[in-house]
Amino acid sequence: MSLKELKNSWLVSLMDIANLMNVNNWRGAYTLFKKETLRFWRVAFQTIASPVLTALLYLLIFSHVLEAHVQVYKNVPYTAFLIPGLIMMSLLQNSFANSSSSLIQSKVMGNIIFILLTPLTYLQFFVAFLAASIVRGFMVGLSIYLVAIWFVDLPITHPIWILTFALLGSALLGTFGIIAGIWADKFDQMAAFQNFVIMPLTFLSGVFYSIHSLPPFWQVVSKFNPFFYMIDGFRYGFFGQGDISPWISLGVVTAFLFGLAWVALKMLKSGYRLRG
Amino acid sequence: MPDKQIDKKVPAIQIDNVHKHFGGLHALNGIDLTIGQGEFFALLGPNGAGKSTLINILAGLLKATQGNVSVMGHDVVSDYQAARMSLGVVPQELVFDPFFNVREMLRFQAGYFGKGKENDAWIDEVIENLGLTDKAHTNMRKLSGGMKRRALIAQALAHKPPVIVLDEPTAGVDVELRQMLWGFIKKLNADGHTIILTTHYLEEAETLCERVAMMKQGKIVALDTTSNLLKKLAGKNLRLTLGDAMLPAALLPMLKSGESGIYTLALNEPNQLEFVLSELRKAKVAIEDMQLFEADLEDVFMSLVGGK
Asked: Which end of chain A is more exposed for a tag (fewer CB within 10 A), N or C?
């Protein structure tokens, strides 16, 4: 392929994306984003306050039980170590919950038709649902942080890494939620997804411990868990130290995000389980 | 008017040789149909005839196995954004979003089509004309069934589409809403909107629609103006009250219904009346009462798709 052809193919791709984003109907995508954000905000006790309270209960119990016994990083008390893990865990779970619960509810109740009848492109659909998931993840994460810093001295060493992993993590789980929401036809299928995939991956990712404290076999297993990289990279932003380099985590998380986004976009483009 | 820039020569709906298979079921079997702009059109047929499948293909909810469909000249697959901009569909099922009130839902629905605050006056008009003013700020969850139906119709109209499809809009609704709805829809039609209606209430189609297509087992079995269909196919009905006497056997092929000594016979030609009377005389059956009346769309429907 000549340089000119390569340049043209890139231009075509960019034009395709511009077309799919349908800049003439930017308001359509913004409206869907606004509706999805308002949807969770209307039930903020359930979608924001409840996960914040759960995270604080974890913090209270684990810090009381383990504070005097466990130190993961030098000069970092266990409670401080725990907080970024809890923030990221809640952020990931709620980003997933936002897109997945909205889609499954809309499908079961039948009101997904209001979106399917519109001229929104599949890319606009994806971006709107994803952005709302990111907003909910950030709101939950930020709320936990703001409450936690009243009780614990939490350093911020690399704020850019914190924001980067929060954004990538919420985007990845928001995308995962879109896939699950499209795939599931019943609430119990969604519950299975949440309880047998999301929960184990979250709890076995280093939220409560460093993987260096695990036996060698489980250290290797943990490295196949994308949640580990999100949490470790996020924690690195606070303490400047982690189980692995944040650059490796960035690469793994970005690769997973692109992979899942590709799957989600393929599903939306084909109309899988949405259009017959 | 929906859009003054629209080319009036372009049909509102163009359906060419559309087939749809669901596994082994051939739900649509070569549908060809053109509906002009500004028409008030009825799509009739028994349950399972393929009406909703055809509407779902039109709306982009289903993909045709074969054939092409366009709305206002825009193909529903290759140019789906423009096609959907032109179309408002009232779904048959009573679905709603429980998180929002009526006005919010209408604003969202218009917003998906790129309409903002400039569209609020139209939303107010829709709310008022469908009798939703008192319920505009009520959560969808708290509305009665009839009010939910009104909100559903309002949602389809929120972006002021030039083509409006109403799939069984009056199923299970009271007389007041029917009157209100048809008054508003007639006004929209007079303003230039194309209306496509499916209904089980055939008198509605007969009163409102200029043209009718009747479907049976995935095919169009009749397509004409309502008046032509009535002229060509319906004939007249003769209602005889015979008391305790039985209807003579020679008249049984003409029998449409018979109960408690009252028999309704279908007359395809006027001279059949003389035949009926002579058969009754031959059988020495006394006529207590006799009425001759025009057949309606239901008779046409039954003769074409009712399995007779």
From this structure: N
| pTM of this structure | 0.87
Q: Which two tokens stand for residue B240?
A: 């005889």
Residue showing tokens 């009825």? B42
User: Closest by alpha carbon to B103, among B121, B85, B89?
Assistant: B121
Suggest the residue from A24, A30, A31, A105 to mutate for an interface test with chain B (most B CBs closer than 10 A).
Answer: A31
Fold of B13-230: Rossmann fold (3.40.50)
Q: Which of B62, B81, B91 sits opposite A276 (nearest CB)?
A: B62
B243 Cβ neighbours under 8 A, 6+ residues apart: B261, B286, B288
- Identify the burial level of B172 via C-beta atoms within 10 angstroms of its C-beta, where 0-12 means exposed, 13-18 middle and 19 or more buried: exposed
Report residue B292 as tokens: 């001759």
Q: Which residues of B touch A (CB under 8 A)?
A: 22, 56, 59-63, 80-82, 84-85, 87, 89, 91, 93, 95-100, 105, 108-109, 111-116, 155
Confidence of residue B234 (pLDDT cuts 50, 70, 90): low
For the ranges A16-25, A171-180, B4-13, B20-29, the maximum mean pLDDT occurs at: A171-180
User: CATH fold of B235-305, please?
Assistant: Alpha-Beta Plaits (3.30.70)
Quote the tokens at residue B154. Answer: 């309002």
Q: State residue B4's pLDDT score.
A: 44
- The partner residues of B264 in beta bridges, in order of sequence, read B239, B257
CA distance B75 to chain A (A): 13
* Residue of A43, A117, A273 to mutate, testing the B interface (most B Cβ within 10 Å of its Cβ): A117
